[in-house]
């Protein structure tokens, strides 16, 4: 069975990763528990929720195009806006972790400000996503292997849309016959 995806998660993840990596000026990875962590400093991303449809009812739309192949002239489309929440974190150790310009909190602040630059907005538009809002920057610093790791994070909510299409044919003509109604006629293409 070959089912279509209602959204290109690859395009979504690529656009988000490119923005974040450029903003924090170091490697950014999609956090997976079993994946090795890169050397400090680095950023990590994780989709913590989504897609969450904005409505329980999908918009339904039908379009007919007689230039399509036979049996595919009618397109049924379903679509609903949705949101994704992405947790974005920066991880920094010494000596950068002791410099306010390179604190993880500073990197996250740069990333959130960069979300609204025209070049970033254009990249998101090309991936069919948009920024809805950013949460507060939180300090989640920790001791890792007896050393202090400056960590900060922010949750970014993105808007997107889920949608699928399927195609079918149409009935070009119908013959109706009823003595009671006095009808004996062909309707449609003759």
How do the strands and helices of this protein lay out in sequence?
Layout: H1 9-24, E1 28-30, E2 42-53, E3 59-64, E4 74-92, H2 104-114, H3 118-126, E5 130-134, E6 138-139, E7 142-144, E8 147-168, E9 173-178, E10 183-188
Parallel strand pairs: 1-2
Antiparallel strand pairs: 2-4, 3-4, 4-8, 5-8, 6-8, 7-8, 9-10
Helix pairs in contact: 1-2
How would you sum up this structure, described in words?
- This protein has three helices and ten strands.
- It is of the alpha+beta class and 190 residues long.
- The strands form two sheets. Strands 1, 2, 3, 4, 5, 6, 7 and 8 form an eight-stranded mixed β-sheet that branches.
- Helix 1 (9-24) crosses helix 2 (104-114).
- The mean pLDDT is 86.
Distance between the termini: 38 Å
The number of strands is: 10
Q: How many structural domains does the protein architecture include? A: 1
Multimerization state: single chain
Biggest pleated-sheet summary: 8 strands, mixed
Low-confidence residue ranges: none
Number of helices: 3
Shape: rod-shaped
Question: Secondary-structure element order, as H and E?
Answer: HEEEEHHEEEEEE
Specify the helix fraction band.
10-25%
> What would you call the structural class?
alpha+beta
- Cα-atom Rg, whole angstroms? 26 Å
Strand content: 35-45%
Mean pLDDT: 86
